[in-house]
Amino acid sequence: MKTKRILVVEDEDAIRDFVVINLKRSGYDVVDVNCGEKAVEVIEQQGMIFDIALLDIMMPGMDGIALCKWLRERSTTMGIIMLSAKSQEMDKVNCLMIGADDYVTKPFSPSELVARIDAIYRRVAISSPKSEEKQDRELTAGPFTIDTKSRTIAKNGKVIDLTQVEYHIMEYFLKNRDSALDRKSILHHIWGDSYFGDDKIVDVNIRRLRMKIEDDPSNPVYIQTIWGYGYKWGK
Questions:
Q1: Residue 215: what pLDDT?
Q2: What is the pLDDT of residue 93?
Q3: Do domains 4-125 and 134-233 have the same CATH topology?
Q4: What CATH code is assigned to 134-233?
């Protein structure tokens, strides 16, 4: 059975110890540090061996936002969850726009945190290569080609740099090109039925994805909005 590895970066000792205990009880192999700088040291020494990183957003020195950007530049596959006492909507949006997969607001229950982490881990785990034949693993739509084995998407032959969340959203759209997808169905498919968070996470990720795939993100052609319902693949 594959080891589930997670990096916990939290400067408050009591909260970090609480998180570590509950993650270990849930079967995770945990490495914990108290600042962003130490997290960078761990990654540089051990490599990108972690499936998930749990980052406190408010830390002295290198904060969670800067660390998230640093991690995302080096890995599109690592799951990243932000942890913060802040509850303002803009903070959540900012975290997601820089590449985080989810956002958990303090205070939180152990069951909520573990469920959110489990949901991210399941998505990371299913992203490992499969043994399909090439003709069975490719999806095409307009200028886009998805290779479901390598988990990559190309536009006009050029690979697009996507996070795993963005990849799964694109795959879901292309597999349902003729259907309108409501936000709840996208949320459940990508984040799982047990997701505790706000379905606005769908809209933020769609906005981020459009910035990468659309020629003019403000006038999207491929991912079209169906007002009051959800989204539809438009080409």
A1: 95
A2: 80
A3: no
A4: 1.10.10.10
pLDDT above 50 for 134: no
Fold of 4-125: Rossmann fold (3.40.50)
Average model confidence (pLDDT) for the chain?
A: 88
- All structural domains of the chain with their residue ranges: 4-125, 134-233
Q: From edge to edge, which strands make up the β-sheet containing 230-233?
A: 180-182, 230-233, 223-226
* SS3 state at 88: coil
CA-based diameter of the chain, in Å?
A: 52
Whose CA is closest to 15, among 70, 63, 79, 58? Answer: 58
Total residue count of the chain as it appears in this document: 235
B/e letters for 28-53, b = 16+ CB within 10 Å, e = fewer, are bebbbbbbbeebbebbeeeeeebbbb
C-alpha 212/C-alpha 160 separation (Å) is 7
